[in-house]
Structures are given as structure tokens and as C-alpha cells.
Amino acid sequence: MSRSIVPEAISRQPWQMLIPLCCLVSLGAAVLYSAAGGSLQPYALSHVVRFGIFLVMAVIISRLSRNLFRLAAYPVYGGIVVLLVLVELIGAVGGGSQRWLNLGFMTLQPSELMKPAIVLVLARFYETLPQAMTASWRGLVPAGLLIGLPALFVMIQPDLGTALAICFGGAVTMFLAGLPLWWFVSAGAAVMVIAPVSFFTLLHGYQRNRVLTFLDPESDPLGTGYHITQSKIAIGSGGIFGKGFGNGTQSHLQYLPEPHTDFVFATMSEEWGLMGGLFVLFVFAVVLGWGMNVARRAPDRFSSLLAAGMTATMFFYVMINLMMVMGLAPVVGIPLPFMSHGGTSMLTNMICLGTIMAVHRWSQGRGSLR
Amino acid sequence: MKIDFRRWLRPPHVTTGTLRNSFDRRTVVLGTIQGGVGALLAARMTYLSVFENEKYKLEAESNRVNLSLIPPRRGWILDRHGQPLASNRADFRVDVVPEQMKDAERTIAELGRLLSLSPVDLQDLQDKLDKAHGFAPVEVATGLDLERFSAVSVRLPDLPGVVTQRGFSRFYPTGPSVGHLIGYVGAASAEEYEKDHDPVLITPGYKVGKDALEKIFEKDLRGSPGARRVEVTASGRIVRNLDTREDVPGKTIKLTIDAGIQDFAARRIGLESAAVVVMDCRNGDVLAMASMPSYDPNSFSDGIGRLEWKMLSEDDHVPLRNKVLRGLYPPGSTVKPMVALAFMEAGLDPDESVFCGGGLRVGNRVFHCWNRRGHGSVNMAKGIYQSCDVYFYHFAQRIGMDPIAAMAWRLGLGHEFELPVVGQSYGTVPDPAWKLRKYGKEWQTFDTVNATIGQGYFLVNPLQQAVQASRLASGKIIMPRLLHGAGDRPAASLGIPQDHLAYIHQAMSDVANGPGSAPNSKLPFPNIKLAGKTGTAQVVGLNIGSGKGGLWKHRDHGHFICFAPFDNPVYACSVVVEHGGGSGAAYPIARDVLTYVFDRQKGMDILTELEKNWGGTAKERLDTRYRAYSAQYGAGAPAVAPEALQQASGSQEPRQPIVSDAQSPAPEPDAAPGIPRADAPPAPASTSTPSGTPGANAQ
What we know:
The complex is a heterodimer of chains A (370) and B (699).
Chain A: H1 8-11, H2 15-35, H3 44-63, H4 66-94, E1 101-102, E2 107-108, H5 110-128, H6 141-155, H7 160-176, H8 181-201, H9 205-215, H10 226-238, H11 249-252, H12 264-297, H13 301-325, H14 343-363
Antiparallel strand pairs in A: 1-2
Helix pairs in contact in A: 2-3, 2-12, 3-14, 4-5, 4-6, 5-6, 5-7, 5-13, 5-14, 6-7, 7-13, 10-12, 12-13, 12-14, 13-14
Chain B: H1 5-9, H2 16-51, H3 53-64, E1 65-70, E2 77-78, E3 84-96, H4 104-114, H5 119-131, E4 138-144, H6 146-153, E5 162-171, H7 179-182, E6 185-187, H8 190-195, E7 207-209, H9 212-216, H10 218-222, E8 226-232, E9 238-245, E10 253-254, H11 259-268, E11 273-280, E12 286-292, H12 297-300, H13 306-313, H14 323-326, H15 336-345, E13 354-356, E14 359-362, E15 365-368, E16 376-378, H16 380-385, H17 389-399, H18 401-410, H19 432-439, H20 445-452, H21 462-474, H22 498-513, E17 531-537, E18 557-564, E19 571-578, H23 587-598, H24 600-614, H25 618-633, H26 644-650, H27 694-697
Parallel strand pairs in B: 2-10
Antiparallel strand pairs in B: 1-8, 2-3, 3-4, 3-5, 6-7, 8-9, 11-12, 11-19, 13-16, 14-15, 17-18, 18-19
Helix pairs in contact in B: 11-23, 15-17, 15-18, 15-22, 17-20, 23-24
């Protein structure tokens, strides 16, 4: 395609990533159409519309300057922490746990926004940190606090999945920032020790059940093991080419819990089979591979950390969700990016995507707004 | 990634370059991990959908498809003309499967409200639930109207474990009349399921035969269940029918019973505790086999409620015992034609007479004739039609017991017949060898004397008496049979000379139509004559009661055996009325039953008139009684022990003591005048009676 015909603003977009992504969203819409019993309402149409809106938002984000990102890092982070506290307060007043704020026109889940925000703030932190201090405690403790504070608030909501996502995004950013390797090794070892202890002390009953069920789903096929078992049945019964569009029985007869959100991949696999599943994995490989490439080619430390952290955050969604539906991880409420129906997760992922696209633009060197 | 161990020992030297370098290396590591996870997921996905595909396909199918058995329609039981004695009728029913109920108490309460069950119903339901195995369905209600049925149906998603069904339930058109003959059905008990692991047994709505023919022919009547495959959602809502395999109804069983005669006989018994058997004496077809009072098999099929149990078990007329097969009675004078045949065979000239002065000294005791005034000169015919005891006392001593016992056997007494029934009590035909075996005592002359008038050790059941009447009438070895179309092999002859039989027939005809003991047993037809023999059997010694009045339990049993038409026998009939006070209670029943057999309208007119005074048909009286019990006891009746029913219906021994002991007879009061019976002339009872104590008579 020639630049003289296609406007530059369009031609310089990363189409090698966007086209597969659009295919994935279309597949997602098709699955949601089927999950709604062959109807655009209530899932498929809003899914596509949201994607459209958030894509525009991502493009706008990608147009923002690097300096704006730098300047906004701490205020955005601080604002979201305040929102998290607010959620806790409202929850305490209202009685019971609450994860979202009702803004009137939409419900906002601040913990979701924290996922890209933690990456942003850490990228900013390590950019400003004198390089010689990277390997000292001053490279570790502030970053640890930046991660720990929101993670703690999310944890007491309680929302284990999101807390883990925040920690994961933060930890990957720290890892890439060049902190000594043995810190991570010893932290990993410490987790190995603490995990069993916290399993019996920190986790809530239902979370503990989910872990136990994950370890032995058949022990309680009608109770908490039900979700995993039914999901595996849906995926396994699909075979290589699936049962055909609209023919999934597990989803249509409500054996599959949450067929349009957390278990959308199982719904898809039942009807599209292994081929559909490999296609989804392929698209994610393209998108995430592109994200890592952008990070590697980024012009400076801030943008490379930013792009890599955002990619890692998206990767975490994909990994945990797919492992969960295939019975490799406990049931945690994490949706599959670009396929699950749900505004907040789409928003988060599109923020991540937009940020990577921004880094992509910066590294192309044509960004005049720096 | 190359690991430099020295870096770990000294503070690392960090510059922009080293950071950039480590970033590049670490992104590669991260990318590799991501790729690894992706490969892992792809492998896992392939494993699930390719290698475990078959397993999960099956599981998805078993999720989706719900297979439910349709209980087979039970085979009908028909009478000889094809009229149903037991059929099925379509109904709406509700069952619960205990182990599937989430909150049993709430579910039951909700069902009670929706179906408007009474406290008694709820209590019976609770009893059934307590006894039930978790997987076996328990019946809540049957025969529901559409309104109540749908009220439950629409709430099914909120009531796990509740099953609603359109099905068929067993129906016995004549109710109590066929109770003992046909039996009843009920949900399979845990023991029955242990024995027979047919899954249809635990299908909601399936009933197994619990008694009599229903039990004997269970396998034939069962049929094979149909199946319905439906697609269901996770919450159990049925989305659509996939396919249905119709059930195969059980085989139809055709009986020799005539439904009309059976029902008439049962109803004609009225308020008495009695048994009636009607047979075709040409081929042995049992036309009616009624034992009353009875239970209503229709109301037993949902299990036996406490109140029902209390009502039936407290009745001294033992409605739970089939008296035709399990009732044993001393036959009284009904054995006299048989004894007379034995005399003739032994060479006694029937014209040889004896003088009856009202009693006969045997050994050191005097045995009385029922008629204390005596019969004067008595030959064999008069001995039968007047039922003179002295005639038989006299000649029995000459002939001896053994020819008499042999004749009793030949005529069917003491036999257990090959019939599809759950139990027969076959009684006793006493003879010297038997007494020695049983009691280790020598046979005495007075034992013979007692036996010739059907007292002492003699015990028979009403079926044997009907067979005896049939054989007397036909002179052939008639075997009773219940299954229709078993083949018409002509019965072999008994080998009794025709002139002997003719003599006996004439004497028995004279009982009713001549100068006999039961002139009122005459049939109301000019051209059809009945030949019969009366009998009265003592229940207690006369030192306790007279046998005619007083306590019901102390009254004599009434017997009548007969056949008709006397000159060309077709029908034989036996009637036993427990504690009827003498044969006067029995022969009107036999007369009316045979009247009905020959002229249904005429018979029915008589019955309608009688039932007006009795308070309706047997079914109506049973219902009235249940209502009275319900009002009196409500839910306060004690629970039914599981084995109690088995004991009650299966008890071999009659409850009342049978007088089989010659040591304690008592004088027979003069029966001729003065017995105040509305429908009968004086009972010509015949019981041996040395007056007072043996010691007193020895003089």
C-alpha cells in the first residue's frame, strides 16, 4: 500500500496486530451471539460497539505524548488509589463487599484501572531512579509500596484475581527494570513458603474452596468443582472442529457457568473446536508478540518498561483465564480479553493496547508531540 | 542467560548500558515464558478436545439428555367373558424421590398445601418416607385433577425431588368383591428391589403385585417399561422431547371367574363373615371365590394407611384373611353324602334302617341326634335329607373310619389344589393312622362317630367343599382351576357307580325340594331344582355357649354345599358363614347366588332389597366405616409395622378355637322351632352331644 494513497495517520497504525485482533473480536461477538441463544442482544452487539468505542479511545491514547504519560503517572496512580479507598468506604457503609462505584451512567471498577496504572507508575519510577540505585534497597522498597498499597485494598474487597494481576504486572515491570535476579529467586522461594501458610490464614473460605477444588475437581462435581468440570466437558466435547455454530449444548442448556464472561472460551471451544481455540491462541500470540517487539524497540527506558508491562498485564489475563477454563488453575474471576462480555475488562485491555500503540508511535520517531 | 556468580558477591556495577542489556535479555526470557505458556495451553487444549474427546462428548450427552422410564401398563385381569376384574385407568400423580429433596420438610409441607392433603394423608406420607430407601420414589398422591396436578407441575423447579407424571394406576371396578381373589398392588419395597434389580421397580408410579393373583403373575403382568429421552437444562427444565419408546403393556390374564357372579356372591354375603365358592362342576372352572368382609384393593395401592390398618385389623370378621383358602372349619353335616357313598361302596344297603330315638350309646357315652325327639326309622336317604346323626353313628361303627377317610380324599377333602394362589390351608381328614402319627393315641370309636358328622378332628376349607360338591354332582375327578383356556381335558371318573350317585343326588334334592332339612333353599324356578346339604359346626363346647345366640364368636359356623340343576348338574356351590349360628345362615346365600346364576335380574332384585337394610354395597359400607374411623381417630392411629400385614393375611391358623376334641361336646339344643331367623327356617344342625359329663353318662 502506498503512502500517497492512504493517509499517513492510518497507514502507520500497526495493522499486522489490529487485523487479527478485529478477527478475534468478531469471533468473540459470534460466540456471544450464540450464547445469547442466537441473538445480538444482550451481548454481541454491545461487545462490538464497546470495542469500536474503546478502539477509538486507544487510538487517541496512542496520540498522546510521552511527556504527558510521564507527567500523568503519579496523579493517575494517586487518583485510582483514592477511588479504591472510596470503594472500601462505600462498601463499609452499605454493608458487605463492593468492588465498583456507581457513577450514574456507568459502574466503574477502580481495581481494574489499577492494572495499567501500576505499570505506568513503576515505569515512571524506574525512569527517574538513578541507575546506580537500581540494585539497592531504594530500587525495591518504594516500588514494593507502590504495588503493595493498591494490592492490599483490592485484596480486602476481596478480589484475589485482580490483586494477583496487579502484583504480576508490577513484578514483571520490576524484573525488566533490571533488579538483581537473586531478589526474584529468593522472593519466589519465600512465596513457596508463605503460600501454604497464607492459604490457611489469609484466604477466605470460598477462595480456599476454589483452590481445593482446582486440585481435585471430581471430589465435588455438583458443588464448587462443577465449574471446572463443566468447562472441561465443553472444551473436550467440542473435538477438532466443534459442534457447529449455535449447537453448543453445555452453554445453551446452562451447564456452563458464566458462558458469556469468564467461561467464554469454553463456550467458543464447544462450537468451534480445537481450530477455534488455536485461532484464539494465535491471535493472542500475535498481539502479545507485537507488544514485546514494541517494548524491545522502544527508544528509552520509560517507554520500553511501559510497553513490556502493559503486554505482561494483558498476558496475565489471557494466561489465567485460559488455564482456568482448561482446568489448569483455580477458578478466579478473570475474563478473557477481547472475547468476554464486559465493559471494564475491555476498557483495561484497550488502555493497555493504546499505551503500547503510543510507544509504537514514539519509536517510529515521527511523533511530533514529544 | 549467562550467570556471573561474581556479580552476586560484590555490589553490581549498574549503568544505562547494563540495564538496557539486562532488559533485552529479560524480555527474551519473558517472551520465552509466554511462548511456553501458549504452547502449554495449546497442548492442553489438544489433549482435551482430541484425546479425551470421546469421554467428554459422552459426559456432555449425559448432561444434556435425561432418560426417564415410563412405567409399563400392567396387564389386565379379565373374567371368563372378557370383563375386566383389574384394569388400568389414566391418572395424574405426584411422587417424591427422597434423596433428591433438598429440604424435605419444606417440600412436603408445600406439597401438602398445593394438593390439599389432610393431616391423615400427611402422616401416612411421613410413614412411607421414614421407611423408604432414598432412591425409591414415594407416592404422594394419585388420581389428581388437572388443576392440582398443574399447581405442582409449575412449581417443579423450586421443588427438587418431586416428580409429576401422567400415568396409569391400577383399578379394580368391583373393589372389595375381588380383594382376596385378585390381591392388590403397591410400590416395591426395599426387599423386593433387593431380590429383583429391575430398574422399573424404582420408577415413580410403578407398582408390583402384593398379594394373590397380582403377586403370582407379577412377571407376566409387568410388561416392559418405555423410555423417554428429553433434553434438559442444568436446572432440570425440560427443553424438548428427543424420542420416546412406548411401553409394552403386560400380558392379559383371563380367569375362569365370572365377574357378575363374583361380585354378586361377595355382596350377597352382606354383613356376615363368610366365604362363597361357585364352580362349574363339569370342568372345574371356578366361577366365583368370594371372601367377605374384604379390603378395597383400590385404596391399598398407595400403601396401607394407619387408619385403614387400624380399621381392618380391629375387625373381628378378619377382612384381611382369605377365608376361601385359609379358613379352616369343621365341615359339620356337609360330609354326610360323602359318608353315605362310603357306606354304599362298603356294601351297605341304603334301605337298611336304624331307629333314631334322639341318641345312641357309643361305648360308655350317649351321642345325641340334633333332634332330641328322634327321627324314628331312618334309612340312608332320610339320614341325608333329615340329617339324622344316629343313622351315621350306627353304621359308621360297622363300616369303620378308613373307608370313610378314603372317600373323603377321593372327593377332594384334605387336598391342596394346584392353583395360582399364595397359600392354601388344606385342613385334616382324620383317620386312625393320622391320629397315631399326630397325637400318638389309638383311634377310638367315638372319633369315628364324631368324624361321620364332620366334627372332631375334621377340618376343611370352603374351596375343598365346593370341589366335594362338584365331584358329588359329576362323579368325576373335578380339579378346580382359575386360568381360563387351560384346555378342556375331560375329567376322569371317580369310579363310583352311577346308581350310588343317583341315590345321593335324590337325597340331596330332597333336602331342598322334599321333606328335607332346608326347604327354603329351594330355587325360585319351577324347572330348576337344587340339591344340597346343610351343615352346622360347633365352635365352642355347649358349656360355653349354645352356638345359636350369645357372643358372636361362640356361635356355630353355618355350612351349605349344593349343586344345580339336580338332574343335570352344571353349577356347584359351597358357602361357609363364620359364626352364622347354623346352616340357616348359609343356605339362603347359596340359594340367592344360584338364583342369580340362572336369572341375573331376579337375583339382583333380591340383593338390592337386602342391601337397603345393610346400608349399601360392600364398598359403600367400607367407605362409611372409614369415614367414621377418620372422624373418631384422625391422625392418632398407631403406625403400621411393616411385617404386620404379612402376618395378618398369611396366618394359617384360624383365630377362633376349632372344637376338634371329642371329649367336650355338648348337647345340641332342639333346633326345629324357635330359632328367630327372619330369612331362614330352623337350622337343621347336627352335632353329636353326650349330655353332661362322660362320667354321668356312663351309667
